[in-house]
């Protein structure tokens, strides 16, 4: 039967809270601060993490495996065996029939060089980058004007170039870079395209961390290897595989390692770099902050809870007679217990609601000041709320139990 | 007539062996349904202790007590709460209304504890207020009422669950004589309608209105007990 006892308890608890507003606010304060600090802390670290994720997307994704040459001669003379190894060569690419390529979504190579670079407008010593087929999408570049390299140009190492936004601006300030001839070293190179400008700032007032990417002068890797450096081995500085199936990275790394080791006379003159794993490691620092925020929230809730117990015990003294009256007219200890619990939980609920609002405000103010977009997850709200509920419940138990154990006779006579 | 109160050899001892106070030394009291009893005695006589035991607010040290035919010794706290709720209507000298609840809610409260549904609760509370002539004050807070009105509300509350007896502890003690007389008249009316009334008082004039006087002295019934 629904006698409405629950609604009555809520109503009575609400009246009690309203009539003792000052006391109620003091009691709710611990909950408000605790909830706000948990939610705020989580949201700030989420916002920073969200910004990192945006960065990874702009970097062209995390699903990449880099292979780089590795110096194995630390000091002294290299052994004959070591000297015979030449790092990553174009010939390494000719093997690989053993590799499971089903998961490989793209491959790019990179060859670095420095060269005096000239146009009618500028004459600078610049880094130029030799690139392979999938370099542009894998590194997150996009062609703005003109076109990308054709397969033939890449294969043959033809004298063509694509300029980053800064490079195009530097060498052709009037904006007509496409079709011009740039001199790289002693060789004339035709500019066939420009890249879109790339911008990413961790905070609004910080510098563009993609600044150097706009300085790119991209040439076919074969052009640098053959025509600029005359390197018959066509050595390269980096090979990047894109593996969208994250689970396949491990197996692929293993196969790749054994293959390379075999063709490099068992010398570890290369190293593999799993970009996703590296980023994950960086992100785990954020987890440490989460735990710190969680702890500070819990401490606030515990502190608030202890204050609550004290206030409740003090206020119980004022209400002993009221408890006595209720018991005389038929309230059981259980009923009294429920009444006190309802009041404490309602207060916790109101405190938590206020705390969540305070937490939103708090995170908003901080992220605005940091210049980072605010990211809030539903689970942060849930966590903050659950913690408040658990602590509110736990700390309400003792005073409610104390009240329920009063003797009706003594409570009635209490002055 | 069936017995509403039947106590045998009730004793109550406060404190430990050395400093023990024997408040009641073996009380035998029988009250029939429909009686109007005045429980009198000077302070320190054990009158309040007896009232607390009769009201199931306290337990006797020894002896048996049957209320409305139901033995209450050995009941748990929750069971005693149920007995107080359904079989006893308390009226106190200090009214003991809940100050933050409206008059109507105060009268509804015992029915809430008894699990009476919302609609019936409201209806019965209004009936009780009508019996004490306060229907128009239903939405007021106790603080807005006069002493006599407060006591009427507390009488309405005591009647709410149709108890086996009304237990009134100095119900006119805080009232002026005119108002007090009105309250006593109300008790007499209620008694005429069949309610058993136990009125605890030290005022012999008030006691004179009762159908029987039971006098407590030194923890024993001195007069008005079983013949």
Order of helices and strands of chain A: HHEHEEHEHEHEEEHEHEHHHH
Spatial order of the strands forming the largest sheet of chain A: 2-3-8-5-7-6
What is the count of helical runs of chain B? 7
The string of secondary-structure elements of chain B, in order, is EEEHEEHEHHHEHEHEE
> From the coordinates shown, what is the CATH architecture of chain B?
3-Layer(aba) Sandwich
Structural class of chain B: alpha/beta
Q: What coarse outline of chain A follows from CA principal-axis ratios?
A: elongated
Separation of the first and last Cα atoms of chain B: 16 Å
Topology of this protein?
The complex is a heterodimer of chains A (415) and B (227).
Chain A: H1 5-19, H2 21-58, E1 64-69, H3 80-84, E2 106-118, E3 123-131, H4 135-138, E4 143-146, H5 151-156, E5 160-163, H6 165-171, E6 181-184, E7 187-195, E8 217-220, H7 221-228, E9 238-242, H8 248-263, E10 270-274, H9 275-328, H10 333-370, H11 378-404, H12 408-413
Chain B: E1 3-14, E2 21-32, E3 36-40, H1 47-54, E4 62-67, E5 70-71, H2 77-87, E6 88-91, H3 103-114, H4 118-131, H5 147-159, E7 165-169, H6 177-192, E8 196-201, H7 204-207, E9 212-217, E10 220-223
